[in-house]
Amino acid sequence: MAYGGDAYACDYCAQFPYRLTRASESQIARVIALAGAAAAALLALAACAGPSTRATASGPQTPVTHERLPVYVVKRGWHVDIGIALADAQPPLLPVAAAFPGSRYLLFGFGDRRYLLNGGAGNMAAALWGGAGLVLVTSVGLQSPEQVFGRDSVVRVLLTQQQMSELQGFIGRTFAARDGAIVPVTPGPHAVGSYSAYYESVQRYSAVHTCNTWAAEVLKSAELPVSSAGVEFAWQLWQQVRRLESQGADTSPAARLRRSSGAALSGLIS
Predict the structure, then answer these.
(1) Residue 141 located in a structural domain
(2) pTM for this model (two decimals)
């Protein structure tokens, strides 16, 4: 991300009557880079406290009859969640699904435990240096993610059964377990956000592993062409998700291979 590092360095250096050595220039560049990363991580952390939606009514589950299974990528301001239909829940996520029998959709996110449970500027700053993570679950209720968050903030990607299994397996492995059961966490009176449930996580939050990094890793686990490297902000992941959407409904590895082969053949013919 651009913070105008070169211009800032020049203005900074102009205040001094001597010419900077290569070593001092390098040190300043490192300081600027670290400051930029810290600012990015703080904004990403604050994003995890974005608005949430709780279930307000109960209703029947809808069985899946189509070959491909939808996963919902939901942009909630500076935070990205990964959602599934409750009817598509597989063994890794069944313990969570059981806690929300009246919901049709569940969204999963990630964040820093100390900050989300207790709030406070001190906890936000401390998160930059790394700490325990937290799995965030939002019950959407009877409405679809598009109805709740708007069509511009939701991308629906169709997965094969195998892709969905890999994706849910990754999310499931993010939960910490105690005596074989996932561990719910009760938020404090100053908790940030209003998610439906909080759970202990085996992963850690840090300036280089934010809520959006985690969401990118979830999609990557399903063999989707998504990179988590350098992803801190929601927009960095959202650009990749929009490219997925432009590829069409079928994003399976086989379909991507067919498109790649077709493009190569077309290039040879032309």
Answers:
(1) yes
(2) 0.71
